[in-house]
Amino acid sequence: MEERYYTIGMAGHIDHGKTTLTKALTNVETDRLKEEKERGISIELGYAPLNLEMGVAISIVDVPGHERFVRQMIAGVAGIDLVVLVVAADEGIMPQTEEHLEILQFLGVEHCIVAISKIDRVDEIMLELVMDDVKERLSETIFRDAPYVALDSLSGIGIDELKQTILTKLKAIDFRDAYGSFRLPIDQVFSVQGQGTVVRGTVYEGVVQKSSQLRLLPEGISVKARQIQVHHEERQQARAGQRTAINLGGMDQTAVKRGDVLVDSEHFLVTDTIDIALQVIGRKFAPLKQRTAVRLHVGTSEVMGKIVFFDRNELTQTPNEVLCQIRLEEKIVVRRGDRFVLRRPSPVETIGGGWVIQPNGGKYRFGDETIEMLRHHQQGTPKDLVVDALSKYLLLDEKSLMQHTSLNENTLAEILEQGVESDSWLEIPRQGYSLTKTFIKIKDELLDRLQQYHEDFSMRMGMSKAELIQSVSTSYPKPLLEFSLNLLVEQNELKRFEQFVALPLFNPHLPQKWRVRMEQVISSLEQDAFQAKKWQDYFLGTPLPKMEIAELTAHLIGSNQVYRLREDTLIHHTAFDDALNQLRHQTDTCFDLKQAKEVLDLSRKYMIPFLELLDELHYTKRSEDQRYWTEDKR
Fold it and tell me: Which residue numbers delimit the Tr-type G domain (predicted)?
């Protein structure tokens, strides 16, 4: 049978017996610091294994109850599967009990057992009153149906009942699937002499193997898991739901801190701007103004930032969820769906909590449009998340899609395959994916630009591919433009000739505005044959602009309607063809200048440039005084 791993937390007011209860359950003293033992209170997180049944491995996290150590409490309960809420029978609900309750709900903890401790100090009537009080307080929370166990940790009364209740409760909870990329938010860092730096935490996702190569985020430092322990026992691996300690070989302790995250892939996003769904506490608090400094607790990290609202300038007590954003002073590692707690730094108080909608938020305008966009992201299906990411970034590979959507490999692969089959997006070899609607938009822009280009430069063969891509490169990634252009050629939406691109039905032609004038020039050149004037002389007295003359020249030469005889002289192709045919038919395999002159009867002014033109066009090949007809031009 597959072993199941769970982590449960002890929460409640200071001195209500959490640590004593943990020892009664596990026989482990979790207060290990000298100051903790002297003062009789928990300051740091304590951990202990709870062995109840074969195949069920349980870790207990004992969190501090004093209000000064709420930050440690938040780090401890992040990622737990079940909470044991400890309430002393002689005191009942206290301020830290209330705050812990709020924090637990904000962090998404859904399963609770209420342990009424120290029952030896009260009579049955008082015990019943305390239970009724707790039940009333929990009646409007997610823990309204939590089971209750009355106990005394020192005498052992109720401990076996609590163990059985824990086991029954855990068996009804879906244990965490270890599939996916490994993630361990670090809540403790210490050094072991002779072994180096060790980090502890609860494995949120995946599995880590001994000797695995890992990355420490947000710094991005490569590390190695030299040794793995689970409650002081060396293991080959640790998996989701387990408390684990990992020895990081060669790592200086000062380079690691609580809140850092160990991962085994590049699928995790480092960010300093997150879009959130915030639920505030159910009691009044001092209004939180726009861009007020706040302290964000997510995973085991604690980071300062500013809260940004898009539908209000001040936050007061409200039963409604508030969609907003936190802009942080430091980079953190989060995924969509991660739970958080928000606290005011001064005066210190919990404001609320909720979950991360978008781990990589942008800068948005104030108003309803942004709220609707955030609500769409909040309610989105996995496919919607992919569409949103591709809409924002246009082209993303699988690694980037996992970062921006927080989907695991299996889910993402399935969605991507479905999307390609349904033509929702296109797979671009070695580059990633892009929405089909993005391709259509690119297509429209490319075709519009080409249409305009043909109108502006009707005599050109087309627009160079590089120029066309450059014209829209500020709006789209170049690999996406390259792919789109090639696909349009395959679909016969475009045609390509060498480096030029054109619309399928386009052929170079004279512009309507100057057609008559240009045809007159061309006709005059044709009539002059080998008595052609300087090319510029043909435009004397015409209203043709210099730009149009340059375009006409390039068009005529590019389409072989004329040939450049000399730098300032062109001849019409009919004159060239006539001379070529005469010379070809009235000479043998080779000829010299004298023979050519006898055939064509041209002056030296035109004869020599014409023969050099034949050489240039590879009709002939010169060897000293002789010219030989080339085989491919005969």
Answer: 3-179
Cα dihedral value 220, 222, 228, 230, nearest 10 = 0
Among 477, 486, 454, 461, residue whose Cα is nearest residue 561: 461
State the virtual CA torsion across 183, 185, 188, 190 in degrees, nearest 10: 50
Number of domains in the chain: 5
* Residue at token pair 């929702």: 424
What does the block give as tokens for 319?
A: 């039963």
- Residues 490 and 483: their CA atoms lie apart, in Å, by 11
Within a domain: 501: yes
In the block, which residue shows the tokens 């999307």? Answer: 419
Residue 416 shares a structural domain with residue 479: yes
C-alpha 381/C-alpha 386 separation (Å) is: 9
Which pLDDT value is given to residue 515?
82
Q: Strand 590-591's sheet: what is its strand order?
A: 590-591, 626-629, 620-623
Q: How far apart are CA 609 and CA 569, in angstroms?
A: 10
Q: Same domain for 478 and 545?
A: no
Residues 388-426 pLDDT 10s: 889 989 999 998 898 888 887 888 888 999 888 888 899
Tokens of 444: 């429209």
Residue 402: domain span: 394-509
Which residues on adjacent β-strands are paired with residue 345?
348
Alpha helices in 304-397 (DSSP H): 368-379, 382-393
Q: Judge whether 86 lies within some domain.
A: yes
